[in-house]
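Sequence in, structure out. Go.
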Amino acid sequence: MDLNRATIIGRLTRDPELRSIPSGKSVASFSIATNRQWTDANGQKQKQVEYHNIVAWARIAEIASQYLKKGSQVYVEGHLQTREWTAQDGTKKNRTEIVCDNLIMLGTRPTGETYNTPTASVAPSAPQEVVEEEIKVEDIPF
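Output:
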């Protein structure tokens, strides 16, 4: 059995960029920073920041573009995907991204109000179809 699952909670490093592909489907891309802190063997506090590239499709992309801004805290659940392409200079490039299947807005809006919008997720059996459902923070398994 194989499993390709990514779950992160972090803050957006930039506003989502919403585009449409030729078929008319919406796609949004943004980046999330996650922080890790620990105390080393010498008793010094250490910090490490990781940056994650996120790609959201369809209704999730539209929700992200409409409600999220740089600095927004979010819960993202999805799967890892690596894309490969050849750059204009002929070099091969690749990028690993989290393809968002579920997005929950945490914290407050930039206006100071709390989020009360529905969360969106993609049904695993039909990745192109969007299913809206409310997920409670208490249901997150950690």
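Check: The two ends are 23 Å apart (CA to CA). Confidence is low (pLDDT under 50) at residues 123-132.
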